[in-house]
Amino acid sequence: MATAAQPRTSPAAAGRPPVHILHVFSTFAVGGPQMRFCQIAEALADRFRHTVLAMDDNHDCRRHLAASVAATFRTLRVEKRRIAGNLFRFHALLRETGPDLLVTYNWGAVEWAFVNRLRPVCRHIHIEDGFGPEEADGQLRRRVHLRRLALRRADAIVMPSLTLRRIATRVWGFSDDRIVYLPNGIDCDKFARPPVPAVLNGIDRRADDLLVGTVATLRPEKNIDRLLRVFAAVRDGRPQVRLLVAGDGGEKERLIALSRDMGLSDRVHFLGHQTPEQLLGLLDVFAISSDTEQMPLSVLEAMAAGLPVAGVDVGDVGAILAAENQPYIVAREDEAGLAAALAGLLDAPDERDRLGRANRRRARNDFDQARMFERYDALFSGTATVN
Questions:
Q1: Fewest CB within 10 angstroms: 283, 287, 333, 356, which?
Q2: In terms of domains, do 201 and 256 share one?
Q3: Based on the structure, what is the number of domains in the chain?
Q4: Global pTM?
Q5: What is the pLDDT of residues 104-134, one digit of tens each?
Q6: What is the CATH classification number for the domain harbouring 273?
Q7: Which backbone phi and psi does 233 adopt, to 5 degrees?
């Protein structure tokens, strides 16, 4: 595992050029891995410079990158049916870019791991954050074999969740000494600030309303349909309850139509993209209904905001929450259980307060971003020890 980074002189202060990292994402659309990159790059801006590639040439998350970060975004134009030609092009671009370190993210960038393995250009770190819906219930055999082949010579394989670490050792067949467990971190101080009520402008709410909320990119694997069905069950007999869905994505219009068809339009509000620290403190309960997750930042942010969580037991969701909150996490397919968990929290304000305080302590003690920055600094600069 990576050891904690010790205070060190930045390359710029020492008269050395910053370490150059080439990052390859399947997409640089707004999402957890992309937002984490923006946070790390800003925190370590004087230590590294970055070249960013997206296999789909979507660079939407670029708007979240601080101006202080030295980053270049390049267009790739992948030709999907010309696999061999792409590999030659990728290797040529890797040599042309000449980075000190290649960082690949998830299955969608595995070709770059493969070309650097066949003809190495630089150190290589692979970061695996999770899987799409096609691997929510199990690993695809072809991908397992290709991961084994492509990542065999990687200097480190980074996993932010214990669930992923188990998959990498038990399914992919990598030894423990190849894996770096490096959990995500968040700015806990930011979520201790007062929320911004103006984010709910336009919503006709009463003072006694109870607000259930979720923050998610609206993709199929987030299964907001499940949350709508659960909310419909919980709303019966609780006319003061509202559901707020923050986030954008390809599923948004369909979900709005589904909410209308279910007769929920007056109590379900799709807010679009929102800054989490401005919204979460306004909620009474945070809910998560995904088919697949690993270590979701949205749950960590809800914890830092002092919220209780009702959700499904996917990835590390149950493991990262405070022990007191774990009875409110149910099996993924148990919609009746999720409705009971959510109803139990809505009907018990003292319990909500107790769990919220426990979750906030857990977030601050174990998942503050300062520790994450230290470990990525050591990993990217090559001073980390992998056991």
A1: 333
A2: yes
A3: 2
A4: 0.76
A5: 999 999 999 999 999 999 999 999 998 777 7
A6: 3.40.50.2000
A7: -70, -40
